[in-house]
Amino acid sequence: MQTGLATPSIRTEILAGVSTFLATMYIIVVNPAILSQSGLPFSGVLTATILLSFACSLMMGLYARNPMVVAPGMGINAFFTFTAVKVMGVRPEVALGAVFWAGVLFMILSVLNVRSAIVKLIPKTLRYSVSAGIGLFITLIGFENARFIVANPATLVSIASLKDPIVLTFIFGLLLTSVLMIRQVPGAIIIGIVLTTLAAVPVGRWWGDASAVNFGTKTLVNFHGIFAAPDFSLIGKLDLIHSLQWTLWPVIFAFVFTDLFNSLSTFVGVAEAADLYDEDGNPRNMNRSLLTDAVATTLAGLLGTSPGTAYIESAVGIAQGGRTGLTAIVAGLLFLPFLFLSPLLSVIPGIATAPALVLVGAFMMKPITKINWNQLDNALPAYLSMVLIPFSYSITQGLTWGFLTWTIVKLSLGKTNEVPVGLLIVDLFCILSLFSGH
C-alpha cells in the first residue's frame, strides 16, 4: 500500500516551499564565497548558483514530484575549490569540465539503474565516516575563513588572539546563529549572515580590515550598489577536453561518489521523515529524483558552479506539511529575484558566512552515531577516512585511505565476503590516484 501520499492544501504547500527556501537560501551567498576562492568571479558563481537552484528545483517538483530543493552541494563545493583547484592545481575551467563529466556519468548510472550495485560496493560504515569527514572539512574552512584557526610554526595550527576584532565578530556570529538555529527560527542561517555582516561594518570602518565590510572616509569601498544585471560570464566556460585527462579521473570519481551518496542519503532521510514511500517500500519516485540530481550536476558544469544535489534542509518544508512537488516549485521560484542582487550580496564578508560553514559542518556529523565503534575492523577504516579528509585538506585522500584500509583489514581477518570484487576495482583506482602525483 502506498503511504505518505495524502495531498495537503495548496496553502500548506506554498508555506512549506517558503520555509524550505529560507532554510536553503544561505547557499546563494555561501557557494559563491567558497568558489570565488578558486578564481571564479563571485557574481558569475552567484548567477550560476541561482539558475541551477531554480531550474533543478522546478525539475524536482514537476518531474520527480518530490518536495525537495536542489542546489550546489555543501562539501563538494569545498572539494572543488580547496582540493581540486588549490591542492591539485587544476584550473577552475577544467574543474568545471570534470563536474560536467561527473554529471554525465551519474546520468548514465541513473538511466541504467546500476546505482544499487555501486551502493553495495561501498561499506555503509565508510559512507557514514565520509559524511562526517566532509563536515569536519567544512568546519575547518569556516574557522580558517574567520581567521579563528591560524598557522603556527610551533604547533602547525592554533587559535587566534581574541584581541582581533575579526575573530570577535566571528564568535558573535557563530553564537548568534547557533541560538537562532536551536530556537528553530525560520531562515536562521541567512539571518545570522546578515546580522554578522552588519556587525562587521564597524570593524571595516575603524580598523580598516579588508576582511570585513570596509568603509572609506565617506562611502563603502567594496560597495557598488544594490542591483545589477546577472553575470552570465561562466556559462559555457568549462574545459571539456582537458578535464578528460587521466589525472582528472580521481576528481571526477570523487564528484560522482559524493553526489551519489549525498543524494541517496537525502532521499532516504526525507522519505523516512515524511513517510514518502511507494508500494514497494522504496523512496517515492527514486529513479526520477536521482535523474534530476544527475541533471543538476551536468548543468552545474555548464552554468559555472560545483555539482548540484538534493538538500537535506528540505526536511524543514516537510515539517511544515509539504508533501508534493509544489513545495519544490515554490522554493525554486523564490531563488530568481536574487539574480539581480549580486552587488549587494558581494559585500558580505568571509567572517559572515564562516559561522554557516561551521554549523552546516556540525549537521554532517550526525551519521557517525551509526558507526559501531566497538567493532574495530569497521571503526578504524572509518576513523582514518573521517580524520584524513580535514587533516589532508582533501576529500579524495580520505576516500582513498578509507577504501584501502578497509580492504587490507578485512582481507587480513579472512573476511573476504566483505570485500567484493567491485571494491577491489575501486581500490585499484585509489592506488593509481596515489601515484598520479596528487
Short note summarizing the structure:
The chain is mainly alpha-helical and 438 residues long. The chain has helices at residues 10-24, 27-35, 42-64, 76-87, 92-111, 115-121, 124-145, 165-182, 188-206, 249-274, 286-303, 314-319, 325-335, 342-345, 350-363, 376-391, 395-412, 421-434, and strands at 70-72, 149-152, 156-159, 308-310.
Shape: globular
Specify the structural class: mainly alpha
| Regions with little confidence, pLDDT below 50 for 5+ residues | 1-5, 215-222
Domains, number: 2
Strand adjacency order, main sheet: 1-4
Helix-strand pattern: HHHEHHHHEEHHHHEHHHHHHH
The span between the termini is 51 Å
Number of helices: 18
The description of the largest β-sheet is: 2 strands, antiparallel
Instruction: Compute the CA-based radius of gyration.
Output: 21 Å
Average pLDDT reading: 84
Range of strand content: under 5%
Number of strands: 4
How much helix, percentage-wise, in residues?
55-70%
Describe this structure in words.
By secondary structure, the protein is mainly alpha-helical. It has two domains: 10-365, no CATH class; 373-434, no CATH class. The protein is 62% helix and 3% strand. The protein is built from 18 helices and four strands. The strands form two sheets. A two-stranded antiparallel sheet has the order 1-4. Strands 2-3 form a two-stranded antiparallel sheet. The N and C termini lie far apart (51 Å). Residues 1-5 and 215-222 have low confidence and may be disordered. Its main location: membrane. Belongs to the nucleobase:cation symporter-2 (NCS2) (TC 2.A.40) family. Azg-like subfamily. Keywords: Membrane, Transmembrane, Transmembrane helix, Transport. It is found in: Endomembrane system. InterPro entries: Azg-like, NCS2.
